[in-house]
Amino acid sequence: MDMKQESSCGDVGSPSSQRQAPSCESIPNFTAEELERATDGYSESRVVGHGDSSTVYKGILPGNNHVVAIKKWFPLRRIQVDQFTDEVKILFKLNHNHLVRILGCSLETPVPILVYEYVPNGTLHHHIHDRPGSLSWEARLRIAGETAGAVACVHSAIPGWPTHHRGIRSVDILLNNDLTAKVSDFAARLDRADCLVLERFFHSMKGYLEPDFFLLTSRLTQKSDVYCFGVVLAELLTGQKPVSAARTAEDKNLGVFFLKNLREGTLFEMLEARVREEGRPDAVKAVAEVAGRCLMPREEERPTMREIAEELQSIRRLEKNAWAAEAPDNFCSTCAGESGSDNGRTFA
User: Fold this and answer.
1) Which of 11, 135, 307, 345 falls between 20 and 30 A from 147, CA-CA?
2) Domains of the chain, with CATH numbers?
3) Model confidence over 121-139: pLDDT tens digits?
């Protein structure tokens, strides 16, 4: 099975064509037995993640020993299965360098089981909150830009149809060994009537939804994704969690706390030490201002993900030029690519 696909999105998420969604037959199909064997019978020892509606297993495909991630959904109603299948057909054609690729599925079970590329180095949440200070400023800025471009790609996937991620969080951003970002959990965003599933979902989104979400719209949109991304940017800049009892009740939500400090000119004290030490002040301020616009209370005041991706690209380009100008004569400016780890400059 050929797992390589051509990219269907530009650098910041613009689709290259208006193709029809592929038919079910065009999606590589795994048998239920293959996936059962790949996960040792869906053994608990193979579990690598849980969602509000699914469990993810590390799988080793029989025959070629290819390591994959296998997502098994909880039971759905018939109408949800039909919607799920339609969305899988659409999302299968998406291939952005920083989206986790769908490699295939199994249609032999009541709910299709999806097979994804395996991303080995954990989540951005883990690196920020369980290993504080482990990410350089350069890595944070690159991860932010890669993530924005991937979400912009999802938003522009189908012309005339406003697709969205349904809430990007730091746990949804996976990292490869070179700290390249891969956005996951963007498929099969179903409007479920199951109260338990909805309760699990909204619990998992604490700190990522705008404070007045239930009063204003109570619906998830592309601009909801923008707000969530603003919280992710705040995490990258401050190292603080989206919700924390260590902050006052008024400042419990990071998005609210971050925006207040940005407006009051006291943001510097919030920044994680490594960001303060490594980031040029004008670049850090520029990223903080992007985050601030993402966190605006009213949807119409927030930028699009495409605009965010372009702005972060521009900030990163200026940073790389500044690093090159400051570096010794033997610095190779072409070593720092737009994707993957930047070898031209490293921070101890």
Assistant:
1) 345
2) 24-117 (3.30.200.20), 124-326 (1.10.510.10)
3) 999 999 999 999 999 999 9
